Structure formats: structure tokens, C-alpha cells
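User: I'm putting together a teaching handout on how multi-component assemblies are represented. Below are the sequence lines for each component of a complex, exactly as they appear in our records. Could you produce the 3D structure of the whole assembly as C-alpha cells, so the students can see both representations side by side? Please keep the chain order the same as the input.
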Amino acid sequence: MKKKIAVLPGDGIGTEVTKGAVDILKAAAERFGHEFEFEYGQIGGCAIDACGSPLPDETLALCKRSDAVLLGAVGGPKWDSNPPEMRPEKGLLAIRKHLNLFANLRPISFYASLSEASPLRTEIIEGADFLIVRELTGGLYFGKPSGRTVIDGEEAVVDTLQYHKYEMKRIIELAFQLAQKRKRKVTSVDKANVLESSRMWRETAEEVAAEYKDVTLEHMLVDNAAMQLIRNPKQFDVVVTENMFGDILSDEASVLTGSLGMLPSASISAGGPSLYEPIHGSAPDIAGQNKANPIASILSAASLLRNSFGLNEEAEAVELAVEKVLEEGFRTADLASGSKAVTTEEMVEEIKTALLGQEAISQIMGAYS
Ligand code: NAD
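Assistant: Of course. Below is the structure of the complete assembly, with chains in the same order as your input.
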């Protein structure tokens, strides 16, 4: 298979972990006989410095002519006092909007070898395996009007929560389709006891559920969902929710299985290239020290292989290589809890060896079968 991947490393550890993910994609291409072309672009703080925009036109054009986008992370103290339009995070919001990335998928999986890294007791978290599907291009983060104002002569502020029905329908449908490939349960999260938008969301979820009789739908209020994620995370399969609830719940869920450095995400496009990135930020506190955990970025690359290229076997091979390396006890500093840690580059090298090693093992097994 021949594919073109836009690589946007961004700022801070974004550059370090993305380099690792590209190395693993190259190894996967080598092992399975594919040809991936990588073309690099700028986004976030580095793009502001180089081009005066957090999402330069060249970067957007590069993404649009690619089959998928691999992103690192953006931001850092250098740009923290910039005006709103010149903040690195604006680049992320803009790319989501321009590529029509309407759905953010965050798988949360428990690794037995990392049970000590979870803040929950092992018996509560063990076996947890769920997927958060967050709406990404609507709701409070994009609604207009938004800004400071004066109401009845008093200083005031307005943010607008707006959704079209079709925006609700397409993401809820995606959640049901994903549930069909998993444990066939969708938990739709809203605040229907207070918000009209949530009542429409709930109504839409019921309408979609009628078309997917093999999947069970349950509704949960967002405050209860925040509690249930801690009390009993094993109850979930696919969780679907609007933009801001999803932002908060997915960050909460991300700490359940250990480090932020372990969690990938996929942002699915309605028509164009989809975008894959770790959920963590640019981690300025450890940037440039070869200390960052590259696994979230590597698992994002695996998700790219599966979701954009349909390469399931290749994606699974990368995921298995990560699992093997963790089982063997290799840990970056975020997971090492006092014991000896490997560097970012060493972790990538171990995963690469495990990935290419699987081939040698399967050849040996083949010779004896
Ligand atoms: P962060 O995710 O960058 O870091 C939070 C903590 O987790 C830090 O202690 C960091 O060292 C650690 N950490 C994160 N990723 C790690 C990894 N791969 N390996 C080891 N440790 C890791 O969040 P923050 O500190 O709140 O934000 C830093 C900057 O990143 C800010 O400018 C913020 O706006 C930006 N940010 C960007 C994104 C993104 O690009 N998608 C997401 C969140 C934050």
C-alpha cells in the first residue's frame, strides 16, 4: 500500500514523541511491505514563530493533500501571554474545523503490567476497556456569540452552546457503529435534566438506537458519569457525548490507567484526512530531555494504520509490540516510580525491535508448522 502522511510534530515533547511514532510507522512499512511518504509541516508555537500563524496555510494545504495526519502537541510558556488569536491552541481548534474532524475517539485500556500506575485499586480498574467518543466541532467551544459584554449596564459574559441536529446524529451513529465492533453497549452522556441541548441530544440518541437493535443504549447524566468512571469503570463500552462534557470526562478517564503518556486519540474527519495525536500536551517541564513517554504517540500511529488505512493486522502488531515491551519491564520516567527508567529513544528502539522481532518469530513458527 502507498500512502502519504502529514507529520506535524508541534512544540515541546511533541517533536520527540512524533519522531518515535514515525520510526515505528517506518518499521511497520518495512515489515509489511508498504510505502509511506512522510511530509512535515508546522503547527502551534513553532508555526507562530516561523510564519506568524498557529496554523499556516501551507500546513493546512499539506494536510488536505495527505491520506492522514500525525500530530505531536502544541503550546508552551513562551506563547502563554500571546493574544487569543496568536495562541498555539488556536492552531488545534482551527485544524479541527478545517479538516471537519467531528469525532474524537479516546480508547482507555488497562494494562495488567501497569496496574501499579493507576490511582484506582486493581480490582476496580482491572479489565476496564472502553472508548470515549467526543463531539469535536460544535457546542460551547465554537458557538457564537461568545465574549465579554454589558447586560443591564453590568459587566457580563456570554458563551453559546449550539448544535445542529445532524451534528448530534452523525456522532451518535458513529458511536453505535463502533459499539457493534465491541461489546455492543452505548452510554450517552448529557445533562438532560437542565439543558435543552441535552434533551435534543437524548432524543437523537433514542432515534439512532432504533436503527441499531443489536446495541444497548443507556443514558447517564454527566455528573453521575464523572462519578461512575471512578466507582466502576468496567461498566462502560462506548461512551458518547458532546464537546465540553467529552473534554472533561476524557481527561478524567485518562488518568485511570496510569500516565498521560500512554493514551492515544483519533480525530475522525467527515470526508477528509483524519488526525491522530497523543492526548497529552507539549510537557514543557520535560521537553528536550529525552524523557517523554512515546507510547501515546506510537499507539496513535497504530490507530492511524487501522482507522485511516484499514491496516488492522499492522495496527495490532504495533499494539502487541508495545504490550510486550511493557511486560518485559521497560518504563519511561513517568511510569518508572523510582526504578531505572529508559529514555524516549530507548523505548522506541525496544518497541521497534519487538515489532520486527514478531516477524522473525512468525517465520520460525511458519518453518515448523
Ligand atoms: P501536559 O500534558 O503537557 O503535561 C502534564 C504533565 O504530564 C506534565 O508533568 C508532563 O511532564 C506530563 N506528561 C505529559 N505527557 C507526557 C509524556 N508523553 N511522557 C511523560 N510525561 C508526560 O499538560 P500541561 O502541562 O497542562 O500543558 C503544557 C502545554 O501543552 C500547554 O501549553 C498546554 O496548552 C499544551 N497542551 C496541548 C495539548 C495538545 O497539543 N493537544 C493538550 C494539552 C495541553
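A couple of points students might notice: The chain has a mean pLDDT of 94. DSSP finds 13 helices and twelve strands in the chain.
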